[in-house]
Each structure stands twice: as C-alpha cells, then as structure tokens.
Amino acid sequence: MNGHIRRSATVALALAAAAFVIAPPQAHGFAEDICYSQGGAPPDNCAPLPPPCPVDDPNGPLCGLEAFVRYGYTLRQPLGGRSLVHSDSSYIIARTVGFSERDAYWIAAYDEATDLGTFAPRDVNGQPVAEADTLTTKDIGGLVRTHFATGGFLFHFLPTMPGPLAPGPNGLRPDVDDPAHEVMLTHVRRWAMAGPGSSAPLCTGGFTNRSSNGDYATGAACYDDPQPAQINGVYSVETPVAIPFTNTTGEQAISGDVRSSQFDSWIGDESWNARIGIYLHALGDRISHHVCTDAGTITPPAPDRPEFRIDLNKPTCDQGPHAVRHEYETGVDFAGLDPEDQTTEAALSMVYDELVEFARARGTLDAGATTPATKSALLGDGLLPALEVRNPVERMAAVTDVGCRFGVPAFPGSPACRG
Fold first, then answer.
1. Spatial contact of 192 and 275, defined as CB atoms under 8 Å apart
2. pLDDT at 165
3. Each residue of 290-330: pLDDT tens digit?
4. Of 403, 101, 103, 96, nearest to 276 (Cα)?
5. For labeling, which of 59, 109, 203, 293 is most exposed (least CB within 10 Å)?
6. CB burial class (10 A; 0-12, 13-18, 19+) of residue 340?
7. Rounded to the nearest 5°, which phi and psi values hold at 340?
C-alpha cells in the first residue's frame, strides 16, 4: 500500500510539475516567505512546511506535491510578498557592516527585485508604505527567475563547470574566487565589485571570451569567439521530464531592450547598490539551490559543437524536493535539518562576509563588523533564531528586533522597533 501511495504521489507530482512548463510558479531560491493578504489582513506564510512533513526528508513525494502546489497557489496572489532573507536580512547586515541606511535599503531592494522584477515596500498588512514611490526599484525584469528567454533563470540556478581532476564545487560554501568552476557566480561578483562605469561586462549565462587564465567568466567581453554561441540547457521538472531553454551569448538583458552596457544609466544613482543587491541574490540562490546546481554541469564549446550546454536535468533539481527545501528556509528548527539543507545559515554567513568586502571596497566598512563576535551576535544569536519563528507576523517582528538591537531602523514596511 505504501508503495502504491508513493507511486501515485510521484505521478501526481509529475503531472502538476508539467504545468510548470506552461505557467511556472514563483518558487525559487529563498522564495518569498511573507505573502500579503487582501483586505488589510495580516500576512500569511507563503508555504509553511506542513506539520506532518519531516525536516530530514525533502524527497517524500506527498510532501513534495503539497509543497509544489502550495507555492504555485500562494505566490500567485495579487499582492505578492517578500523574502525576509533577501530583503530584511540583507538590509540589516548591510547596515551593520557599515553601509548607510539608504545604501543598505537599496542593496536589499534590488536583492528582492532580482526575483520580482521590481520591488516596492509594503507594510505588514500589504499596503504600500507612504513613501513607496520613492522606494521603488527600476525594472530589472530580464533577471527574473522564470524568464528563461532572457537568461534571467541563470541568476537563480547558477550551474557550475566541474573540473576533470578536482572534486565538484561545494555550493553550500561556494568559492567566489574560482571562475574556472563557479562561472556565473564569479562573473556577477566581478561585475558588481567593479562598480558603475567599469568595463567589466555582464553577460548572459556569465559566459565571456576565455580569459588569460583560461576561464569563461572573467574575459574582457561577452563570448563571441569567433561569433556568439547558443546556450542550450535543460532544467528538471520531474526527472526525466525537463524544460529546455535556449539563449545566445552576449550582453545580459536587463529590462525590455535595455542591455547590461546600459545598466548604470538605466538604474541611475543607485547603480552600485543595485549591482551589489543582484550579486547577493545570485549568491544566496547558488547556496539555496546547491543540491541541484552542484550536480548540474556546463559543457563549453568545442570545435565540433559550437555551443554551451547546461544540464540541470538531475533528480536533485526535481520540483518536489526543490519546493520542500524552500520550506526548510524559514519557520523551522534549522538544527534539525540535514547539514546539506542548512542553507539559511550558510547563505547569511556568506552574505555577511561579502558585504564586508563590498563595504571595504566602498570605503564604508565599520571595523567592528570584522570581528567574529559581531557576526556571531548578529547571525547566530539574532537573525537565524528570528527566521525560525513559524508565525509570519511574529517572524517579521523578530527579524526587525534583531536590527533594532544593532541600531538599525526597521526595514520600510516592517513593524517599528519595540521599546
């Protein structure tokens, strides 16, 4: 009987996931955990882990089916939502390491906009904040997670290029200085660190002409050697069913006809903050999706095959366990998760470290932020236990309280500091 239930659930998941090809749900790295309700009601958890589902088995088909369907429903609600990891947590960390309140906000806003296309803050009841017009990002829809045609998908599922001799990359703690393997991640980081007006390109898939070191991530121009190449990929729905996608190497599409060489003029004064936010989002999603992207591969062009191939048609990319793992990212006891699924702790740790490096580059670094005690107090004793709170309103308040203890005003729309 149990085998029959498992087979039936797997078939049902495959059928539900097939709809992903037609109308993919908005369920990707550190997906929104706060979903706004209509009529001024308090927000809901977008997709809480169902109580019967264990925290140490993301592959159960029944839980996978429920998680997948719930995300597909809740994240299509009219008012949408936001991720307390991508928005509030990034904001609090950025401010703590030395960025101004304004810069910290825009870094976090563009971190969230990388999922949504644009971001405008709403209050706890889903209403736009009073100053929402001045706090709304420019459109960066070309980077959105479900936009396969623009290459936006690859800012969220960052494939890697395994080496023939070295072990595969470890996406729970990806090496941001390894362009030979972490192609997209190191490419976006280089572009973000270079800042406005630089010549560092932002290319579809992260693919440049080969650099002097032989990698495809840090060349001087987007891949066109001897001409632009196709990027042909597959992404698992329910193995072996997959979504095929095709792009062409060149400048990354940002919004409509705006390409990455126009990014600074398109964004305006917040361009460097936007670059950092986009990179932090890619970093967080690399970690969030590491069980998928660690198994995925990139195959570069060859004389008999002038194309890049991306293979994400792997069982660890299937939509059931993918959705369940997002339910592990907030509202659960992180210590109960298997080590490979403790992605929230891993992501916030790296976001902290990287924001220290960006603050150092910008000349705003607070020296106290470089001490292990500060990082431990903010993350281990602060944001992580706050993000474990299951009730969404209480979780928002708990995250805000962490910032308040560090002298960081509430993220726009979050509950005010208490006391």
1. yes
2. 58
3. 999 999 999 999 999 999 999 999 999 999 899 999 999 99
4. 103
5. 59
6. middle
7. -70, -20
Q: What confidence tens digit (pLDDT) does each residue in 261-282 have? A: 999 999 999 999 999 999 999 9
Dihedral sign from CA coordinates of 281, 319, 74, 60: negative
Q: Look at strands 44-45 and 34-35 and give their pairing.
A: antiparallel
Closest CA relative to residue 64, chosen from 239, 325, 294, 285: 325
CB atoms within 10 A of CB 22: 6
Residue by residue, DSSP assigns 241-285 as EEEEEEEESSBPEEETTEEGGGHHHHH-TTHHHHHHHHHHHHHHH
231-241 tens-digit pLDDT: 999 999 988 99
Q: What is the mean pLDDT of the chain?
A: 90
Strands 307-312 and 297-299: antiparallel
- pLDDT tens for 184-221 read 999 999 999 999 999 999 999 999 999 999 999 999 99
Helices 2-22 and 319-327 pack at an angle, to 10 degrees, of 90
Q: Is 372 exposed, middle or buried (0-12, 13-18, 19+ CB in 10 A)?
A: exposed
Q: Which element (helix H / strand E) includes 325?
A: helix 319-327
Q: Which of 71, 91, 155, 73 is nearest to 117 (CA)?
A: 155
Distance CA(232)–CA(245), nearest Å, equals 6
Distance CA 1, CA 36 (A): 40
